[in-house]
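User: quick one
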Amino acid sequence: MEEDLGSFADLAHGKATMSELRNRIIEARHDQMFPTLAPADIERLRRFGDAKSYGSGERLISAGQVAPGLIAILSGKVEVTQGREFGRREIIVTHEAGQFAGELAQLSARPSLVDAESLGPVEVVIVPSDRLRDLMVQEADLGELIMRALILRRVGLLESGASGPVIIGEVDQADVLRLQGFLARSALPHRVLDSQSDPCAKTLIERFHVDSHHLPIVLCSNGKLLRNPGENELARCIGLVRPIDATKFYDVAIVGAGPAGLAAAVYAASEGLSVIVLDYRAFGGQAGASSRIENYLGFPTGISGMALMARAYNQAQKFGVEMAIPDEATRLSEGTDESGRRYLLNLGNDEVVRARAIVVASGARYRRLDVGNLAQFEGSCVHYWASPIEARLCGGQEVALVGAGNSAGQAAVYLASRAAKVWLLARGDSLDASMSRYLVERIKAQPNIEVLTRTEVTSLEGHEGNLESVRWRNRASGEETSRPIRHLFLFIGADPNTDCLVGCGVTLDQKGFVRTGADAEEGRHALETNRHGVFAIGDVRSGSVKRVAAAVGEGAQVVAALHAYLAARGGGEAVAVTGVGRV
Ligand SMILES: Cc1cc2nc3c(=O)[nH]c(=O)nc-3n(C[C@H](O)[C@H](O)[C@H](O)COP(=O)(O)OP(=O)(O)OC[C@H]3O[C@@H](n4cnc5c(N)ncnc54)[C@H](O)[C@@H]3O)c2cc1C
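Assistant: Done. Structure below.
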């Protein structure tokens, strides 16, 4: 079980699209994926839902549409299939009395990835999403059994690669990688059809009269076709992100779904606060980019950053956290009404989130290399993390990786398992000062990693977005070397993400990190900024320890401060803002 849940995100990266593998997982985990509830469990479940009858051949769940909820079968049979919307109907399972239809989408009322149809008359109990979350909390053992099944079913769908949106384009095209990366990091099943070689892709391109210059296209389960969409457009089409409820005041709005933000969300929501989390990329933050975290407590064999973050993301959804991903917070301002101070977060798409308190958990963004033509290779040949998607592109090739920290070390070791050779380029005299000892040792032991210290990249050569060679210089000797390298990885540190705080009066330190506690103003809580009710946690906070465990710890710690702040201010679910923008 542990292994399957742990591999959740690796599977999301499209490591396996073979149905044999999925069948193997289904066989091995069949009882956990498709459990039969005891009559007493069905009785407990009934409390949370409503009974309903269906005639033969009725559609209970449609791919691309939000399902009415988790569907427990009292009598009759329900067949679950995938791929119907794209003409490749494949049976996943036939549920019988005592079993239930549903997967992770039902937990957060997102559009379904599969279809379910009655085979003959059926009697069911439908548990709507909000009641399903109540069930998980109130009936812990039954909730655990259901949650495990929902996660394993998502793993099965990720593996099968036969549900969710279909991306059609050239497999190494920057925009295909961008969309694929986004869906993979969102743990959303999808398929990529190569427009160059896949006959099905060619047929679809002709059918929709798509000019090859307009690729990639994305076919969504609801029947919509998108032409090279942005992540936000795609997310809205597939129902991953929903419109913000403009009338609602959340107790807390959290900017950033990295380890700090997700931890704060889990603890705040589990303690009864209404929470919304925003992230402009995908959940996981920098931690999601880590191929293997070995220093996080409780995982002696290590865990991939995405696997750890996917667990946290599901956990937050279980407690009813509203996820707005991808949505960017662009401006923080403050308003007041009769019940006190309110915060407003403007989003990139003109929507506004209203909350009584704000937690800034926006972490840091990767530094770019100071090389003139870098931008033309980004997205296709210059990478800021090393997931299985990037590793696949580098199979059997030489790659260059710049950096000397733990993230660079992890990525080098990971890429060395796929690439023919990894050139690890570091500006300093050695890796010892900046990299953990265990990684330095591991790199030494890896015959296909060559470390070049006192070295910097001087130029990139290539055309039409395709990198052909990388040139570097030894800073001590001045000697220059050029190698035929098509993929360059950059792990050269990060700067704080504080753009949304510009003009809101929150004070930053000299490097742009958010000041908190006494460093911000005398008498402040350790994680509170100089603005009452605005807190900062994780990597974005001045003086924080840049580690996953530290970010998670601050996420837990800030909830006590939030409770104290909210209790002191009083006031519950609120009314309209009367004065806005006092900043
Ligand atoms: C490749 C790599 C490997 C690492 N390995 C390890 C390791 O092995 N062990 C370890 O302890 N640490 C490791 N780290 C460091 C660790 O990942 C970070 O310390 C940790 O992720 C910080 O968490 P955070 O939540 O504070 O910020 P982040 O993880 O940076 O998350 C911040 C989130 O905020 C979002 N965001 C930013 N601005 C906005 C905005 N305006 N609106 C909406 N969303 C926004 C971002 O998209 C991001 O998802 C690694 C880092 C990297 C890059």
